[in-house]
Design a protein that fits this description.
The protein is of the alpha+beta class. It is 19% helix and 39% strand. It is built from two helices and six strands; from the N terminus they run βαβββββα. Strands 1, 2, 3, 4, 5 and 6 form a six-stranded antiparallel sheet that branches. β3 and β4 form a beta hairpin. The longest helix is centred in the first third of the chain and has 19 residues. It is elongated. It starts with a strand and ends with a helix. This is Acyl-CoA thioesterase.
């Protein structure tokens, strides 16, 4: 898998659950934030891609350590295995220390993304700009 994007974010107070750690479901939102930030940066704000969408068709996450508020996290997004209309991604989530250095992974995930025509809801070929970045 090829490195695509690094995205840092701050954990919010409301991300915690009754066990006082970040709820597992919130990690999927963090990955969504990273993926959208990558696509926005790659396509200059989605320019030229009107009517198109990236759709997650499968995702999984392995939770390695709990995360507590307050925290800063680094998400490292990688991608590859590009097909006609789809590609795979992996993500590693690491806490950042006070100096911005990443620690041991707290979660690792995968997702299969399919590129779709929003008007038909059907898959369509990956845009050249996405395909080139995955190569």
């Amino acid at each position: 898998m090829k490195h695509l994007f690094t995205h840092d974010l701050s954990v919010r107070w409301g991300d915690m659950d009754a066990q006082q750690h970040i709820n597992n479901s919130v990690f999927f939102r963090y990955v969504e934030d990273a993926r959208v930030a990558w696509l926005m940066a790659l396509t200059n704000g989605w320019r030229g891609l009107d009517g198109q969408a990236s759709v997650v068709v499968h995702t999984a996450m392995t939770f390695l350590q709990p995360v507590h508020y307050p925290a800063r996290l680094r998400l490292t997004l990688r991608g590859g295995n590009a097909g006609r209309s789809s590609f795979d991604t992996t993500v590693t989530i690491q806490p950042l220390d006070a100096h911005g250095e990443p620690g041991a992974a707290v979660a690792e995930g995968t997702a299969k993304i399919v590129w779709c025509d929003q008007s038909t809801g059907k898959s369509m070929p990956l845009p050249e700009i996405v395909r080139a970045r995955l190569a």
